[in-house]
User: Which sequence fits this backbone?
């Protein structure tokens, strides 16, 4: 039996036409979605655009959500797939445009001492949990569930991410 | 760096993440007192942590702005493509809208199945009390909603059952929509009667509606059986190329 303010209740209200219920879902999950998009895309502009796109797609497909108590997981899945599609399109475009530059790393004046550059340089499987940790309230349980990994795996990735940042920022500078 | 340093440095990351007990923290402190390399590593780790936290904090205004823009975009989308009719947009009480919507759906199926209990001519002669603008808006809202649901059902089915069957469903949906358009005037008239009839006349209308609901229910049961049979047949024929239930487009990199 869902409580009044649960995601499940909000999804059900949304399906009955209560637009405010979906707005509440956006408020609740925006930070997680943004953090995931930032983790994958590694730049804030794309993260904002794709977060918005994800919630619009979620709104249009809300009736296709079967497990209504798992809206958070579902909207993150949509965001992840939108990010991946965007990267694919850009890679395809890059094949035809020799002057293509995918991220902001070339704009950084001092990349070797720039934490943002270092974060961008991390492999995706380390960058995503690290950024979700800092941008989504450091909730290890929620992040592990969203990424389909165990908590111990999450912490192992955090260790590796911190070690790689150290290498990038200190040992190679 | 020996094994102890390596282990200690992993502990340091866990300390940043708030995982260590007091005794484990004490072990790290003891090691740091005698190891300059790990002390430097620990200082750098803390610096990284502060920078990442500062970065996250610096993006708070951007996050808030992005949230506001997303909410505005969702409101706009809700206006164009309502999940269901909303009392806020229609402008009169929610319960009344639900009741009227129910009547319209029942009335629609009454028209579809050719039931004679409600006379169109009789209903039309009594249609004179409801504000035409509200009537038109509500009718358009419900028709839009039905069309949206049909499209969504079709999209879902396309993912699950394949293109050929989906095309047939789409043709059915198109036909359904055409029927809805033909019955637009009749639906509006039914709503008008709902607004205009006196209470005792409504009681009679309710009884008729109950009969119509039973007929409609039977039709739904038959339709459901038909769809289930079709689905079973197709799933038996299909190979393993099944698409995930998640209504998303992308896949793994």
Assistant:
């Amino acid at each position: 039996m869902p409580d009044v303010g649960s995601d499940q209740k909000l999804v059900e209200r949304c399906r009955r036409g209560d637009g405010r219920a979906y707005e509440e879902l956006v408020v609740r999950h925006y930070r997680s979605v943004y953090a995931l998009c930032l983790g994958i895309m590694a730049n804030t502009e794309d993260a904002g655009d794709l977060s918005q796109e994800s919630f619009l797609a979620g709104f249009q497909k809300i009736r296709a959500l079967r497990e209504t108590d798992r809206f958070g997981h579902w909207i993150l899945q949509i965001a992840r797939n939108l990010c991946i599609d965007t990267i694919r399109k850009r890679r395809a475009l890059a094949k035809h445009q020799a002057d293509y530059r995918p991220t902001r790393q070339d704009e950084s004046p001092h990349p070797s001492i720039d934490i943002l550059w270092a974060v961008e340089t991390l492999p995706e499987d380390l960058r995503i949990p690290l950024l979700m940790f800092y941008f989504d309230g450091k909730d290890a349980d929620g992040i592990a569930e969203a990424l389909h990994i165990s908590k111990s795996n999450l912490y192992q990735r955090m260790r590796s991410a911190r070690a790689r940042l150290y290498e990038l920022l200190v040992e190679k500078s | 760096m020996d094994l102890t340093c390596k282990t200690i440095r992993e502990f340091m990351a866990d300390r940043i993440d708030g995982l260590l007990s007091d005794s484990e923290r004490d072990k790290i402190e003891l090691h740091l007192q005698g190891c300059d390399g790990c002390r430097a590593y620990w200082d750098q780790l803390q610096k990284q942590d502060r920078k990442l936290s500062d970065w996250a904090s610096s993006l708070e205004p951007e996050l808030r702005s992005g949230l506001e823009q997303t909410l505005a975009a969702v409101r706009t989308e809700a206006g164009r493509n309502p999940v269901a009719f909303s009392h806020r947009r229609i402008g009169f009480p929610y319960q009344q809208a639900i009741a009227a919507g129910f009547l319209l759906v029942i009335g629609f199926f009454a028209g579809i199945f050719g039931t004679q209990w409600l006379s169109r001519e009789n209903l039309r002669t009594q249609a004179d009390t409801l504000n035409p603008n509200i009537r038109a808006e509500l009718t358009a809202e419900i028709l839009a909603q039905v069309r949206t649901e049909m499209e969504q059902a079709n999209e879902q089915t396309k993912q699950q059952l394949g293109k050929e069957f989906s095309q047939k469903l789409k043709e059915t949906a198109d036909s359904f929509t055409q029927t809805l358009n033909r019955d637009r005037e009749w639906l509006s008239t039914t709503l008008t009667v709902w607004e205009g009839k006196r209470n005792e006349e409504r009681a009679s209308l309710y009884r008729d509606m109950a009969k119509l609901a039973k007929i409609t229910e039977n039709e739904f049961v038959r339709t459901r059986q038909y769809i289930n049979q079709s689905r079973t047949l197709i799933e038996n024929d299909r190979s393993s190329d099944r698409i995930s239930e998640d209504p998303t487009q992308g896949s793994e990199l």
